[in-house]
Design goal:
16 strands, 13 helices, about 350 residues, single chain, globular, Metallo-beta-lactamase, Chain A, alpha/beta, 8-stranded mixed sheet
Length: about 350
């Protein structure tokens, strides 16, 4: 059995993949904004002591909505000892040298680098302490494989050139406020035709994207990766049980071509409406692509209820595109998907 636990990470990502079997293995991917680590701790406290481990902690890139909570994990007396291995492309992986990260000047990414060393965590150990790069495939335990879809060496080199500048941009930027959506009937086909403007962020291009295979289950975790890099790293076509919309459903990270490449039974949106995520064009492109391939519909699960999410609880759209939507129960800080025997079960969702 495989479980995917999607935490309320504010406007960020925090997802736990639990590979349950003879050799259990837990993968925590990002930790959202600061405070998200409290929900992660609460979840692990619900598990038996023998199940409490973070065998792999993947911090996909240096954006605060993915990284800040990771510092909280490192500082947590409960969570920190659970971490066995970290994947994170730090400054030494960008520049190819062994510069002392404590001499760098900008806060969060360097604090996390310091925390990794202070805790004695294995850092990119499965890569012999080198960078996590596209094309690599590792099998931490029997029955589990992790394929690195992105980034490439070129993307890390570009981030290395702009490291401090990009970190300052992230630290100082202001987030756009939620844009109110109209209440009219959705024209999915028209929304899907919206012009596509690709994401050119150097930081997002450095995101670690993974395709996890556990038994018969396939899970695609896309972080904030641009569509063009996902297309480069994925087979054509790719069929998965669960896929996270890249960059919280941003239209600039989900092109028509990518929508046609990925066939997923269930899609995850990790967002709270900040920056107008998810953008309607992304979900519309997925629905149109699914209809064109006669997929028979799709499930979209949102870890927060907000106008950009509840917009899709539209009976006419649900009927026409065989769309099933689900939302995290506000009484629970996480949403759980269980995959077993070809069935998808959702827990901790709000009542329909």
């Amino acid at each position: 059995m495989t479980e995917v636990v999607v935490f309320d990470a504010q406007d960020g990502d925090c997802i736990l993949i639990r590979c349950i079997g003879e050799k259990p293995f837990n993968i925590l991917i990002d930790a959202g904004r600061r405070g998200t680590e409290q929900a992660v701790e609460a979840y692990f406290r619900t598990l038996k002591p023998t199940e409490r481990s973070i065998d792999l902690f993947v911090v996909t890139h240096i954006d605060s909505d993915h990284l800040a909570g990771a510092i909280g994990v490192a500082e947590s007396a409960f969570l920190s000892p659970l971490v066995k291995e970290v994947w994170f492309n730090g400054p030494q992986h960008l520049s190819g040298n062994s510069a002392d990260v404590t001499e760098m000047s900008v806060a969060e990414a360097f604090r996390f680098c310091q925390a990794i060393r202070a805790r004695g965590w294995s850092w990119n150990g499965l890569f012999k302490e080198g960078p996590v790069l596209r094309g690599a495939s590792v099998s931490p335990v029997s029955g589990l494989s992790l394929d690195v879809v992105s980034p490439g060496l070129k993307q890390l080199a570009k981030l290395g050139e702009h490291w401090e500048k990009e970190l300052r941009r992230i630290k100082n930027r202001t987030v756009k406020q939620v844009v109110e959506m109209g209440q009219g009937e959705l024209d999915v086909a028209e929304l899907a035709k919206a012009s596509y403007r690709r994401d050119t962020s150097v930081v997002n291009a450095s995101s670690i994207a993974l395709l996890a295979r556990h038994g018969d289950h396939r899970i695609l975790m896309t972080a904030d990766c641009p569509a063009e890099l996902l297309l480069k790293g994925l087979p054509s076509p790719v069929e998965v049980d669960v896929c996270k919309f890249p960059h919280h459903g941003s239209g600039g990270n989900f092109s028509h071509e990518l929508a046609g490449r990925i066939k997923a039974a269930c899609w995850i949106v990790s967002a709270n409406g900040t920056n107008s995520h998810p953008e309607p064009a992304s979900i519309a492109r997925m629905l149109v692509a699914a209809q064109e391939r006669a997929q028979g519909g799709a499930t979209v699960l949102f870890n927060n209820s907000h106008p950009e999410a509840t917009l899709w609880k539209d009976p006419s759209v649900e009927r026409r595109y065989f769309l099933i939507t689900g939302y995290r129960d506000p009484c629970s800080p996480w949403l759980t998907l269980s995959l077993q025997d070809g069935e998808l079960d959702v827990r901790d969702a709000a009542p329909s």
